[in-house]
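Box S1 | Example of a co-folding query
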Amino acid sequence: MQTMEVTLLGAGIAGLSAALGLQRAGFKVRIYEQAPELGEVGAGLSLSPTAAHALTYLGLKPMLEEKAYKPDDQAVRHYKDGRVLQRVNRGKALLDAYGERYYVIHRADLHGALAEAVRANDPEAILVNRRCVSVTQRGRIVEVGFADGETINADVLIGADGSRSVVRTCLFGESSPVYTGYIAWRGLVPMDRVPPDILDPPSGLFIGPRHMVNRYPVRNGTLLNFVAFAEREAWTAEGWSIHSTVAELLREFEGWHSDVLTFMAATPPDQLFKWGMFDHEPFEHWYRGRVGLLGDAAHPILPFLGHGAVLGIEDGVVLARAFQAAESPEEALQRFQDARIERASHVVRESRKAGKEFHAADPESYPERARNRAADEGRGLFAYNPVTQPV
Ligand code: FAD
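Box S1 (continued) | Returned holo structure for flavin-adenine dinucleotide
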């Protein structure tokens, strides 16, 4: 098997994690990416203990230690009076229980480190400006067609091409994501524009009726990342880089605590975006023949638990281990699906539930609802290790 070249589509966080894992297992990889150059949007990302285990396996623990912010206590506050409703430990308590902690990081830092590590193993591994438009299987050959008219033949293809995956559509037909009724804004604020006394502690949530705001520092504390969720009846625009204005955001959060409005108001106009959230039922099949899916392509997820990239990174490690253990690509893809589908579907469902909890009308009852979820986090979210999960 190790003499086989593995072709991946999509150099996002999931595709790059898989590529790095496969290289580590002795495989040659080629990743075809549609973007003209590699990059990630300016936003933060939280990484749970399970992702930290996976990144350690991939050799990126030193990068995490250098670039990521390590939150200790996270406070959940009341939207109007700023009262602390709950404190959650994201450091020592998790380290003691699960051997790892939470990290928060700028997406571009993580994405850049993954790409650099893949290219250090093989400078030719990533090919940009290659948008896949078709996938056809003929016996053991996978024919991949690109928008420029070129076709390549692959021994095995992994679609890591995101929630609107072309590979998934070619395998299983169009899916029909449903608009959830939630939209979100994301912003990055230079920390020197934020009064330090409104960040106690720096990582935290504010919960209000049908609205929620999450904020934490990235880039060694030089930027404050925030995501603000709200309800909106209808939404049709695609993508998550639609420009918004501070005035629109402040209108939506009128009446909220001044600590929230202060950092929102300090957002530079070119660092504020909005998008609508769409939900999918978990997919039951992640591969057919020699073509498989991973990351958001296999299990699109709502962002309420900050676990989409976490799942993609876990996938990368488990996929590499499945290829290492198997004797054929079909067997590797079956092993991967068997090892991952329950875990991913569980997290996808929990994320949906968390969205409903955050947006329930009454912030006062949040601590009780969160306690129930916290018990479940222990069982379902963190008590998992992609490095030791049987494949
Ligand atoms: P993507 O990042 O979508 O990458 C897919 C890649 O495939 C892209 O590079 C794309 O250009 C390429 N591509 C697509 N189509 C083609 C094609 N036809 N041909 C070639 N290439 C193609 N996750 C967390 O773990 N923690 C968080 O805190 C967190 N916060 C989030 C906050 C928000 C607001 C949102 C929206 C998401 C958040 N997530 C978080 C989720 C996370 O960002 C995604 O789940 C994760 O990035 C998915 O990675 P991926 O590689 O599977 O897909």
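Residues 9-15, 32-35, 45-46, 131-132, 160-162, 166, 184, 186, 227, 240, 295-296, 301, 303, 306-310, 312 surround flavin-adenine dinucleotide (CB under 6 Å). The chain is about 35% helix and 25% strand.
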